[in-house]
Amino acid sequence: MKSSFTVKMFSMRGIKTSGNEGTKPLIESGSDGVGGVASVRSTQPDPDRNHKNLQEEVRQFLTRALQSQPCCSEEDYVRLYVDVIPFIRAKTAGTVNAVVCDGVWAVCHRELLQFVKRFKQQQTKELSNRAQTWKKNRKTFETIDFLKTLKTCKELRLYIHTAAGRIQPSLLTETVAELEDMEAVTIKLLMDVIAKMTESHLKDYFRSAQKWLPLFTDLGKYFPKRPYAADEQKLVIDNAYKIIARSYLTHLLQNSRFKLRRWSADVGPAVSMDARRLHQTMENLAPGVQERNGILLSIKEVLECEDTDGLKLTVALMKQDCTQNKADLDLLPELLQWKGLSRREVREVLDALPDDQYGAPRESWWRDFTCCVSTYCQQQKPHI
Q1: What segment(s) does the record annotate as region Disordered (predicted)?
Q2: pTM for the full model?
């Protein structure tokens, strides 16, 4: 017996089943006569249907589809868009009269826009609450609902593009914009959690004698591998990777090399070890994720390099490695200061960097450096 999920997926792909599955619809038909999944499979739009009645039918179906349900399985993960897309597709299919057909498309997609707005409002509230309470609920915090929202937005967005030429461009554009905004909000909320989680683990890490960063363990708990969520997980892990690598470097540079001796007698290799562990963690959570630990892996070489020309080459290579994560480049002046170079030596190294499409001009480097020197000196003042 095929599962309702399988039949659903077949229905989306236009594949006929044997008809003997006896499956239960994801959305039941109500006493009000509004069709559920059975309508998706069998009902063809009536050319003479009153648009007001059609509007009410579509609205009621989408309202019921939006009822929040926990995401505990692959079926739950895809449930919303697997319900909605075939329903709208069925209502806009098979009309012969072009004028009536265009009217049906307009009615359905106006209701779909309102559905998307309600979905956005609902998910923003729910995900914001999860993001705000993650620390209190850190033992039970899950990321699956964030991933599910991203998946639903993507699938609806791809479907809506198929209506190009059948609905007003402004309607299509507004619907897509709402979904893209929801995707951006979802990623931001989850990345805020990652940033705070990273901060909580790193704030005292370099002042301790810890040899293992517990953040790596927590990431594995919050992002368990789910094959059906692989694409969305890879997207958020890539963003998280950049946040964690930068935060690690920032916290490292806030501690003098003298103070770091408690954490490790040999800072360079210790940082390299953490950089490799970070990538192993992210690769395990999202196979094929791009490496974002290049600047951390180069710290050992920076610390060991005593020749100015050699240091210029090392920093130039670091800059080249960071072309796809340019935000980390503004930490290079502070890294050189942390190594122990004088202001003149730092400027000499930075001036040797080529000006190209990825890097900032020398004047910008120097302005950033003078700012970071002031900040660094303030951080190193003893607290009385």
Answers
A1: 21-51
A2: 0.78
